Amino acid sequence: MDAPDLTRRVLIVLDPNFGERLKEIWRDQPVWIVMSSVNDPVIQSIWADSPGQSHLTGVTGMPCYESRGAEGCFLAYLDDIDLHHGPYSTKTPYTALKVIGAPLTSAIRCALSELGFVTFSEDTEGFDATRSAAEAKRIRP
After folding, report:
1. Which residues of 110-123 are buried (b: 16+ CB within 10 A; e: fewer)?
2. What is the rounded distance in angstroms from the CA atom of residue 29 to the CA atom of residue 61?
3. pLDDT at position 57, please?
4. How far apart (Å, rounded) are the C-alpha atoms in residues 39 and 136?
5. Are 131 and 120 in contact (CB under 8 A)?
6. Which three-class secondary structure state does DSSP give residue 138?
7. Which residues, 6+ apart, have CB-to-CB distance to 95 below 8 Å?
8. Given a cut of 80, is residue 2 above it in pLDDT?
9. What are the residues facing 32 on neighbouring strands?
10. What's this model's pTM, rounded to 2 decimal places?
11. SS3 96
12. Per-residue pLDDT tens for 38-58?
């Protein structure tokens, strides 16, 4: 299997203790990360050190209350993520998601399936989801 095209992948980090690991993996791909006392200083540091990043390449902090849990946070932000990285915002919409800090639940799988994601794989940190370029470009009501 070919390596993913990182310019068409969105990384979503729902682990409130991810912290410094973000600095190692965020470049060359857009990242949405849950804000927390551990993650906030790293997010602020990246913003300060890389002010020229756009919504297609930078780090976005997600205020997400613990009462929602990882699944609730993911589902709450999925439409925003799709809007910012989908066909309304770029000619090359995202085709892959890498999610760290949440399991692939039936609710998440269902929500992603509605966006055309058909391939899912789980690992110890979370899951990956992919869809075709044609599905990524499709405008949904």
Report:
1. ebbeebbbeeeeee
2. 14
3. 77
4. 30
5. no
6. coil
7. 5, 8, 9, 130, 131, 132, 133, 135, 136
8. no
9. 12, 60
10. 0.90
11. strand
12. 999 999 999 898 877 776 778
